[in-house]
Amino acid sequence: MAGIDPALQAHLEGGLTTVCHAWKITRKDGVCLAFTDHDLPLTFEGVAFRADAGLSARAIAQTTGLSVDNTEAVGALSDASIREDEIEQGRFDGAEVQAWLVNWADVSQRWLQFRGTIGEMKRAGGAFRAELRGLTEVLNRTLGRVYQKPCTAVLGDKQCRFNAGLPGYSITLAVDIEDRGRSFIWDALPGFDPEFFIRGRLEVLNGTAAGLFGLIKHDRTKGKKRVIELWEPIKGNVSTGTQVRLLAGCNKQMETCRLKFDNLLNFQGFPDLPGEDWVVAVPKSTGPNSGGSLR
Question: Where along the sequence do coiled-coil regions lie (predicted)?
Fold first, then answer.
């Protein structure tokens, strides 16, 4: 087996083996969870692997070409390990996964069998199933520019380069009134015009939903109240007093980039692309034809 530790290979060829499997899941928020199917905990690479997690995995399908290596992990939902509410909140989406074959009698003898990310996760009956995707999965992603009039960048990313944390483009405050995690109401948001936060983000800063965010659908005034409505509810408990941050929105238009953000040099759209009327325009036999615009 290519890449396997020689000591572990010799152990496997010896006939009587003491091997088990170990998994480590590292979420994007930095939380690390580690499990083993051995009946006692293991420790290596500075990580403690729990033995009572009830996690198992199917055989790993690996290839030597560019097709995606894949497997599936199955385990029990538990407040101490993988919780149902955290799956619902998307905290395991895209998490990094490593899987080893380990000699539990001598953990220095181990083989990293699989490395990839978590894909689709399903839960039912107190258990979960997680699709594990190999490193070659990223080769399936479409790369390249899209030629269109609106900007293709995300506000604040490395293409946009705008610092969304500048004064006047965000506000941090406590939740006053909330409706099912989707609508948030305040008496006022001084200094911010109506619709200023449309297409922006609402980020949760503390509480059990800390780290979650929602995209803003509407920002409007209703009487003397300011109403922020999200496209989808925050999948966590956001109650009165929870600290949130509102980030300015961008509609991807050149005028907005120039006037609202003063960031026209980094505009990633093509506002001068001809429209559909130009594409279907044809020469006319009547009237002057000086070679100018047909529109």
Answer: none
Identify the CA nearest to 174 among candidates 205, 211, 143.
Answer: 205
Let me know: does 93 contact 161? Beta carbons within 8 Å. Answer: no
Q: What is the pLDDT of residues 8-45, one digit of tens each?
A: 999 988 888 999 989 898 998 899 989 888 889 999 99
- Are 198 and 249 a contacting pair, CB within 8 Å? yes
Residue ranges, comma separated, of all CATH 2.40.10 domains in the chain are 6-140
Which CATH number fits the domain 170-247, given the four candidates 2.60.120, 3.40.50, 3.30.70, 2.40.30?
A: 2.40.30
| Those residues with Cβ within 8 angstroms of residue 166's Cβ, 6 or more apart along the chain or in another chain | none
Each residue's pLDDT tens digit, 248-271: 999 999 999 999 999 999 999 999
Residue type present at position 216: I
β-strands 170-174, 243-247: how paired? antiparallel
CATH no. of 6-140:
2.40.10
